[in-house]
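Below is a filled-in request sheet from our internal design queue. Each sheet records the structural input a requester submitted and the sequence that came back. We keep these sheets so that new team members can see what a complete request looks like end to end.

REQUESTER: design group, bay 2
PRIORITY: normal
MODE: inverse folding
CHAIN LENGTH: 436
BACKBONE (tokenized):
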């Protein structure tokens, strides 16, 4: 719910985000009572105004604000409209003004419901917490500028009772005992979109794996590695295909509860214990979530309509892993899924699917097919050079489909751009090029 005259930054997610300012850093200090599901937080938001403005609008859902300080003093006023916190400055803030905003808040966090995307955000487990931010869940645990193109650095500190392990984005920089619990602190210096910020809490063990970067999988003591044992091989493959891993470490968190789907976050992914299986359907999702570190986290969509730039690449990475692990080739998977899509409704416009269809499986598969068609036209060497260049040129930034078209045109020419147009800009399913 939004109050009168409050901004929307992205039409796919009404009532979220404010384009009049951008965040540069979030410093979050959280204290969480697991048994009572009570969260107390203090957030410091360092930002810069993009327009002349007299107010800052933040997203914060279901939590009560007790204090707001803007640049060391109380603002003229602050008000709450639904899940928007509106802070009015004492004097107007010209464009380019740096500011520091402190917000103190508390309450019982719970997911935020969106008519198109269901529930997302802070969610209690049987004995712990998961935070699934995509696409609208970030405001359930911290005040933020909830738009995908507003990427910032983060420091996240979480105090929980003894016996619980906390996993959050970035590198763990501290773990200290204090009255009432243990404080875990994480630093995420690389830019991160709000929906990729996460906290995971459970009675977990951390198990390290050998790999090109620090790797771990985290879960209950009785959970077996299963498909997660192949994470080092996946990371090695993806570094070869996509370029260097973009963050300091990677972890897969396995909750004690079953989950319907894995959850993407920056530097980690979360799975239910039901995904600890030695079959292809479980293992492909381990590869899928890892690939999001390049496509979605390092290189992030600027608008939700361009979701295929995340999910198409991650889905295609499943097929690349299949190919590299001596299962079916990417071409075999492509032709299998092309046949399946041909039997379904042809009403998905990949370049702008609409909020109702943005997470439709047809977007994922058609996005992967778009990449395979491009690969068939330009050849393997040119294709993977193009992909590595895409990541290198845009790492840490936000992109659109038109940016990808321009990159493909510069790298591979007009014929390759025409191939993209057929897959992106019409609902009818094109034929796949012949396999080389």
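RETURNED SEQUENCE:
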């Amino acid at each position: 719910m939004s109050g009168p005259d409050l901004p929307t930054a992205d039409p796919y997610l009404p009532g979220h985000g404010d384009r009049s300012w951008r965040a540069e850093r979030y410093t979050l200090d959280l204290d969480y009572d697991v048994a009572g599901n009570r969260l107390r937080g203090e957030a410091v938001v360092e930002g810069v105004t993009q327009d002349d403005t007299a107010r800052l609008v933040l997203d914060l859902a279901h939590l009560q604000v007790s204090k707001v300080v803007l640049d060391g003093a109380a603002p003229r006023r602050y008000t709450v409209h639904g899940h928007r916190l509106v802070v009015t400055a004492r004097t107007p803030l010209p464009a380019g003004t740096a500011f520091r905003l402190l917000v103190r808040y508390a309450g019982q966090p719970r997911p935020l419901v969106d008519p198109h995307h269901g529930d997302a955000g802070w969610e209690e487990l049987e004995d712990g917490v998961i935070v699934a931010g995509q696409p609208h869940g970030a405001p359930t645990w911290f005040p933020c500028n909830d738009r995908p193109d507003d990427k910032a650095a983060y420091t996240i500190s979480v105090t929980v009772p003894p016996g619980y392990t906390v996993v959050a984005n970035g590198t763990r920089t501290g773990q200290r005992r204090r009255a009432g619990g243990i404080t875990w602190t994480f630093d995420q210096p690389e830019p991160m979109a709000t929906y990729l910020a996460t906290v995971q809490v459970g009675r977990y063990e951390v198990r390290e794996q050998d790999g090109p970067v620090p790797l771990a999988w985290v879960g209950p003591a009785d959970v077996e590695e299963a498909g997660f044992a192949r994470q080092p091989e996946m990371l090695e493959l993806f570094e070869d295909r996509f370029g260097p891993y973009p963050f300091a470490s990677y972890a897969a968190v396995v909750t004690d509860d079953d989950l319907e789907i894995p959850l993407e976050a920056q530097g980690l992914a979360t799975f239910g214990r039901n995904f600890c299986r030695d079959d292809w359907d479980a293992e492909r999702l381990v590869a899928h979530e890892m690939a999001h570190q390049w496509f979605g986290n390092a290189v992030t969509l600027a608008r939700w309509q361009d979701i295929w730039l995340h999910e198409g690449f991650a889905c295609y990475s499943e097929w690349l892993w299949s190919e590299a692990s001596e299962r079916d080739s990417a071409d075999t998977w492509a032709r299998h899924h092309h046949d399946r899509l041909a039997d379904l409704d042809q009403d998905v416009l990949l370049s702008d699917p609409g909020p109702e269809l943005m997470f439709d499986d047809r977007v994922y598969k058609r996005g992967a097919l778009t990449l395979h068609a491009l690969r068939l036209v330009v050849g393997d060497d040119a294709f993977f050079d193009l992909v590595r260049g895409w990541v290198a040129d845009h790492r840490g930034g936000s992109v659109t489909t038109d940016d990808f078209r321009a990159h493909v045109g510069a790298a591979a020419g007009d014929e390759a751009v025409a191939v993209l147009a057929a897959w992106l800009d019409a609902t009818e399913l094109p034929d796949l090029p012949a396999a080389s």
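SHEET NOTES:
- The mean pLDDT is 96.
- The chain has two domains: 21-291, 303-424.
FILED BY: M.R.
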